[in-house]
Amino acid sequence: MANEKNVLGAPLKLCCGNTGFTREGFCYVPNADYGNHSVCAIMTDEFLQFSKSMGNDLITPNPMYDFPGLKDGDRWCLCASRWYQAFLAKLAPPVVLEATHEKALELIPLAALKAHAVEHS
After folding, report:
1. How many domains does the chain have?
2. Which residue in 22, 58, 89, 101 has the most C-beta neighbors within 10 A?
């Protein structure tokens, strides 16, 4: 994880606990992460329903994977393709640019991410 960069070219910040491909809280993209879980997003009810309708239920807890389920306001490392799909449907959740890995830019224009940016806290 050392030396990983965000979409602004600065050191990648923590998104939140127990998220990301490695569940370390950072949205970095190791080689094994073919889903590109690079976008640090703040969940909205609208996005969660959209994701569920597309076949990815992020709401329902799944104890087998130690997954508590997500709710409005939670932070989570999303797949860049799912975030961009939601963006095109006008349902993209807010993003934390400082905690969004530069690999997101392989699929998402920086302007789209900036249009949905919130301050890192």
Report:
1. 1
2. 101
pLDDT digits (tens, 9 = 90+) for 65-101: 788 899 999 999 999 999 999 999 999 999 999 999 9
Q: What is the pLDDT of residues 12-44, one digit of tens each?
A: 999 988 777 778 889 999 888 888 999 999 999
- Only one residue has tokens 């389920």, namely 69
CA torsion through residues 58, 62, 63, 66, sign: negative
Q: Whole-angstrom Cα distance, residue 101 to residue 77? A: 10
Tokens of 14: 């923590």
Look up the domain containing 58 and give its range. 1-121
What would the 3-class secondary structure string for the chain be?
A: CCCCEECCCCECCCCCCCCCCCCCCCCCCCCCCCCCCCEEEECCHHHHHHHHHCCCCCCCCEHHHCECCCCCCCEEEECHHHHHHHHHCCCCCCEEHHHCEHHHHHCCCHHHHHHCEECCC
